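Comment thread on ticket #2218

A.B. wrote:
> Attaching the input chain for the structure job we discussed in standup.
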Amino acid sequence: MIGNRLKQARIAAGMTQDEVVAALLEHGQTLTKAGLSKYERGGSLPKPSVLRALAKVFGVTADFFLEEPSVNVQWLAFRKASSLKLSDQFRIKTVAAAQVEAFVMLQHALEPKRELHPAPRTRVTSPEDAETAADKLRKSWRLGDQPIESVTRTIEDAGGIVVESSDEAGFFEGLSGWVEKTTPVVVVNSGATDDRRRFSHAHELGHLFMDVGDADPKTEEKLAHRFAAAFLVPAATAKRELGDKRRHLDLRELALLKLKHGLSMQAWVYRAVDLGIIDQSHCRNLFAEFSSKGWRKE
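C.D. wrote:
> Ran it. Output below, let me know if you need it in another format.
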């Protein structure tokens, strides 16, 4: 247990073993890299003086190393670039798990009798099923058909946990899982824009509340995208805003809708195509205009 907690604290602090050894030396404590590695593997137990020094380096109390982890997060989906290093993937999961553990401990202390009853998962095999799943979750959470002011607060009000993880390079989009199969956990990149974070929140909810069976990863991602768009802007709302059929969408109109619903202009175009409001030809023209203005990237 102590070894696992040592490794968790080091990864959460974003430090390599060499950096820990150097930092310990500044605190007057000598330890080799091999010794630290042995501690983390559980091959031997550090002395109390070493634990106190490690606690100072990692910014935790010494008691942290002696506490049994109180929660277990079962990660379900991890949306990332293929270039994200394994060490960074492990860091993101480790930091998120530590934050989730702290959140759950605080929640239990403040609301010891609170019982969570998460919405059931919906079987999804098609884009239309994804729309239905998103509508069911909105109905279960009593969101009506109005714009969602804060997706973070919506998830937390429903008993979920939202964590933001730093990844300035942009290789990480979202991570989702369950605590004890009752508490949904959503992790997003804090460096992303507001509309992108909102979409990532909704996308991860799709992974949590859709049952896609044995669908391949690419298909599952497409279904989660459709779920996210439908969760943020239900079909009835999109048609109320745009009409059932349009030959042309104006960029100024899309900009206003982005402000109102927190869905990006490009996502609005995809939404209009998916619902048959505009055709593929106009969609291509709009994206060509986005590209000419540099809006596909910025």
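A.B. wrote:
> Thanks. Noting for the ticket: Residues 86-110 form the longest helix (25 residues).
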